[in-house]
Amino acid sequence: MEGPGLSRRRLLFAALATSLTGCGESPLGSTVVEAYRLTVSGHPGVPIERANIAKIPYASMAAKIGKGPRSILILWQSGNGEDLWLSADRAALVTRGGRIIRTAGLPENMRGTAFYGSDPLAAGLQDPANRIPHTRTIDFESGDRTTVAFDAHFETVGPETVTIADIDFDTIEVRELCRARTENWSFTNRYWVDPADGFVWKSVQHIARSFPPIEIEILKPPA
Question: Is residue 177 packed enough to be buried (19+ CB in 10 Å), middle (13-18) or exposed (0-12)?
Fold first, then answer.
């Protein structure tokens, strides 16, 4: 039987999922807490070992804000090209093509993002033809809701091997230089993409001005 802490956590997962997708708890909800117990018991910052990740029958990622501790997020729901990931330390991320497009449970949250055209990241940055300048808007939830437009372009750093939970991946590092149109704010997102299909194995993405960027590593990709 679940203890009070685990029961509250399941309710939290369901609430975060509903706030981001408008849907109720999925069948995966009954096993998410057990997946955490098999890995790091819900405590952020514990070293993540491949042997423990292998025990989780679902896709998972590791994430941290700035120099903070890492947390494991479990894939809760997928649909329409979007993936909803939930953590035990009260955070939820929605990604599309490796890009964070919505968040919940963070100090400041992203309500959504929209592109003037298509997202080059979703098209696949392994192809130089997709590394094109682009513009998008981001809706921030901080007091009054704010919408900011950003212009961005890519710079290719080159091949790099990244190690994620004891496994080496050959990737291409691509940087996305972003500048706000109406505010004095610029930042650089970094993506390490698979040279074969553009899958984003690792990234560093800025969500808001009020806290450092989020670093993501995919521990077990969606099927």
Answer: middle
User: For the whole prediction, is pTM greater than 0.85?
Assistant: no
Cβ(85)–Cβ(62) below 8 Å: no
Yes or no: say if 69 and 212 are a contact pair by the CB < 8 Å rule.
no
User: Any residues with CB less than 8 A from the CB of 36 and at least 6 apart, and which?
Assistant: 42, 72, 74, 88
Q: What is the pLDDT of residues 5-28, one digit of tens each?
A: 444 444 444 444 554 544 444 333
pLDDT for 144 equals: 63
State the Cα angle at 19 between 17 and 20, rounded to 5°.
65
Convert the pLDDT of each residue in 51-103 to its tens digit. 888 888 889 999 988 888 888 899 989 999 999 999 876 788 999 999 999 99
Question: No. of H helices and E strands in the chain?
Answer: 4, 12
- Residues with Cβ within 8 Å of residue 213, at least 6 apart in sequence: 65, 66, 187, 189, 204, 205, 206, 207
Measured in Å, how far apart are the chain's first and last C-alpha atoms?
A: 30
- Token digits for 194? 């698979």
Reading the block at residue 88, the tokens are: 């035990």
Q: What is the pLDDT of residue 106?
A: 86
Q: Which domains does the chain have, with CATH numbers?
A: 4-220 (2.40.360.10)
CA–CA separation, 23 vs 17, rounded Å? 7
- The answer to whether 18 touches 104, Cβ cutoff 8 Å, is no
